[in-house]
């Protein structure tokens, strides 16, 4: 084999390897929300592959943030506008292919006292010890066990959570206690759950949150409501519950509105399933 033929063969092999890397769309990883506001993430792209970075807040309308050709395989992006949003989600199109995942952040404001919170994103590690680092002595998190009809309690004692391996997954909820006298911002980082998600809502009391990181009225979010059901939203500023009964095929005082990162109590007469579907396109 001549030198020129060998060089051409190596070029062909190199091009084939680049194509192979694109068979699987690049996933966004390494998401981090910096203290001063920006949000950054990474991806592995084949060199000179065209890309488009898109963002959304409602998982419906997407905005192009950046586009071009990858100058190296180590792709990094920093959204300096992220400080303007309490939650934002991102996807990456490479070589015109569908995205591999949706990565993002959701920040919640935790006032002094109690809050009903939810983790709307699937992170690399959804344990309490990882999600809620560096909280002060006296911080607590309680989840409701529908089998034993009681609240658990996880607390920070001697700078450690008493049950650091307890998890808080999307669709779950918890009662969080901030022992300080300050409002504190807490940020969840992770992926949006894809496909169809179905959340069982048992008869009786339970704590639930939206299957997708979307805010709005429970009617808009497709919650399975029935006559006799009551939703208990917690007013974190007034530190009290607001009841929303559903009677005579309607909400007595309007459909309750929930925020991204918020959970609530459900008092349900009959069991049901809360289903939502999201597909990458």
Query: How large is the share of residues in beta strands?
Result: 35-45%
- Cα distance, first to last residue? 46 Å
Strand order in the sheet with the most strands: 4-3-6-7-15
Number of strands: 24
The largest β sheet comes out as: 5 strands, antiparallel
Structural class: mainly beta
Number of domains: 2
Number of helices: 2
SSE string, helices as H and strands as E: HEEEEEEEEHEEEEEEEEEEEEEEEE
Helix share bin: under 10%
Characterize the overall form: globular
Rg from Cα: 23 Å
Average per-residue pLDDT, rounded, comes to 90
Low confidence ranges = 6-22
What report would you give on this structure?
The chain has 2 helices and 24 strands. With 281 residues, it is mostly beta strands. It has helices spanning 3-23, 128-131, and strands at 29-33, 39-44, 50-56, 63-69, 74-79, 87-94, 103-110, 113-117, 140-142, 144-145, 150-151, 154-157, 160-161, 174-178, 184-191, 195-201, 204-208, 216-217, 230-235, 240-247, 250-251, 257-258, 264-268, 272-278. The strands form 7 sheets. A 5-stranded antiparallel sheet has the order 4-3-6-7-15, with no helix packed on it. Strands 8-14-9-12-13 form a 5-stranded antiparallel sheet, with no helix packed on it. It has a 5-stranded antiparallel sheet with strand order 17-23-19-20-21, with no helix packed on it. The longest helix has 21 residues, at 3-23. The N and C termini lie far apart (46 Å). It is globular. The protein has 2 domains: 3-101, Immunoglobulins (Immunoglobulin-like); 108-278, no CATH class. The chain is 9% helix and 43% strand.
């Amino acid at each position: 084999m001549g030198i020129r033929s060998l060089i051409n063969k190596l070029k062909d092999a190199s091009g084939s390897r680049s194509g192979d890397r694109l068979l699987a769309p690049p996933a966004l990883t390494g998401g981090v929300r910096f203290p001063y506001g920006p949000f950054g993430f990474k991806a592995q792209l084949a060199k000179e592959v065209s890309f488009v970075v898109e963002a959304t807040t409602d998982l419906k309308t997407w905005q192009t943030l950046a586009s071009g050709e990858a100058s190296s395989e180590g792709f990094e992006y920093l959204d300096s506008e992220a400080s303007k949003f309490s939650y934002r989600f991102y996807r990456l199109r490479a070589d015109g292919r569908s995205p591999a995942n949706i990565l993002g952040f959701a920040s919640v404001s935790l006032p002094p006292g109690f809050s009903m919170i939810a983790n709307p994103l699937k992170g690399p590690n959804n344990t309490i010890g990882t999600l809620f680092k560096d909280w002060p002595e006296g911080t607590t998190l309680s989840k409701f066990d529908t089998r034993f009809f009681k609240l658990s309690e996880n607390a920070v004692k001697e700078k450690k959570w008493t049950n650091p391996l307890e998890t808080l997954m999307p669709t779950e909820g918890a009662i969080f206690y901030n022992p300080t006298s300050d409002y504190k911002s807490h940020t969840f980082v992770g992926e949006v759950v894809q496909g169809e998600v179905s959340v069982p809502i048992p008869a009786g009391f339970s704590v639930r949150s939206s299957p997708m990181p979307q805010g709005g009225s429970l009617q808009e979010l497709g919650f399975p409501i029935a006559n006799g059901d009551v939703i208990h939203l917690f007013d974190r500023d007034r530190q009290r519950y607001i009841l929303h009964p559903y009677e005579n095929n309607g909400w007595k005082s309007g459909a309750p509105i929930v925020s991204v990162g918020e959970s609530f109590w459900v008092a349900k007469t009959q069991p049901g399933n809360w289903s939502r579907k999201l597909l990458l396109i």
